[in-house]
Amino acid sequence: MDLAYIPSPSTGVIHLGPIPLRGYAFCIIIGVFVAVWLGNRRWIARGGKPGTVADIAVWAVPFGLVGGRLYHVITDYQLYFGEGRNWVDAFKIWEGGLGIWGAIALGAVGAWIGCRLRGIPLPAWADALAPGIALAQACGRWGNWFNQELYGRATDLPWALKISEGPNRVAGTYHPTFLYESLWCVGVALLVIWADRRFKLGHGRAFALYVAAYCVGRGWIEYMRVDEAHHILGVRLNVWTSIVVFLLAVTYLVLSAKLRPGREAIVEPDREPAAAGSEAGSASADAAKADAASGAGTGVAAKAASGAVPKAGSEDAAAKAAAVATEAAAPKTGDGSTSEAGAAGEDAESEPKEAGAKAPEAKKL
């Protein structure tokens, strides 16, 4: 007789009229909000702008859900495409079945797209979000409790999980592996926060630490589970996945620390000053064009005035006026160029007049 155990909910869904409210979905939604909230605080502390984490999460979360479901369906295809199974069930995500490996992998693709659009480095964003992702997993694991799934071997420990009779399960008390993983993820989040403050992790190393620490816990927890799974050399597939991903994360930690030590000085470049500078440069260019056009106009007027008296000696004056007009048409800024061109025009006018005044004296001689 079991004196103490963790009860399981009799149902994982509550109907609000025609609308079903599923515990599994609520746990995922709560996890997403926790991850974005904590990630936003950490991003601002690193010098980023408020709201950037949420903007990129709009890309990362849908990709992550699709990736998590794909991984589950591919690795447990017999549940949906085996004899007597209905392939349509593969789309019923609310019934449970998300692989964290696929969620992180495809979610990273969505995050990369969002980071590219915002012009920020993906590793810096991942570092800010890393402990939040761990807490999101801690929340999401309680969805397995609502669905009475992913439990471990039978046990009579005081914290054993009581499972009721149902499809693909036998009534009894089992290890609450969902609870073990939830608590482990909380510990991983605290570890990453501490290490990040202590060692100033950057360039994706906080995220790599999260991945490595999670894999350690997932390996021994996965070993306790009794649900159907594929095996390689007598070991569950997810255990092998944990080993491979752990090695990759540790390798990245070591190499990144040697190649790019320290933390990013700027995680989100400010684009506003650059935009203002381009506008100022455009305005200066327009002003220069206007000044040049004004000077050219004055020079043309001077040229026209110089050619008004086609008499003897006027050819030299016209040549001088043309030279002055060419010099005035050069691209100069400020009022000085305009006044100089005007003065040159007046000089050009006076010279033809003097030449015309000398012409009658020549006739008298």
What does this structure look like?
With 365 residues, the protein is mainly alpha-helical. The protein is 66% helix and 5% strand. It is built from 12 helices and 6 strands. The strands form 3 sheets. A two-stranded antiparallel sheet has the order 1-2. The protein has a two-stranded antiparallel sheet with strand order 3-4. β5 and β6 form a beta hairpin. α10 packs parallel to α12. The C terminus is likely disordered.
Keywords:
365 residues, mainly alpha, two-stranded antiparallel sheet, 12 helices, 66% helix, disordered C terminus
Q: What can be said about the biggest beta sheet?
A: 2 strands, antiparallel
Give the percentage of residues in beta strands.
under 5%
Secondary structure class reads: mainly alpha
Gyration radius over CA: 39 Å
The number of distinct β-strands equals: 6
Order of strands side by side in the largest beta sheet?
A: 1-2
Uncertain parts: 273-281, 296-315, 331-365
General form: globular
- Average pLDDT figure: 80
Query: How many helices?
Result: 12
Element-by-element helix/strand order:
EEHHHHHHEEHHEEHHHH
Briefly characterize the structure:
With 365 residues, the chain is mainly α. Helices cover 66% and strands 5% of the residues. A hairpin with an 8-residue loop joins β3 and β4.
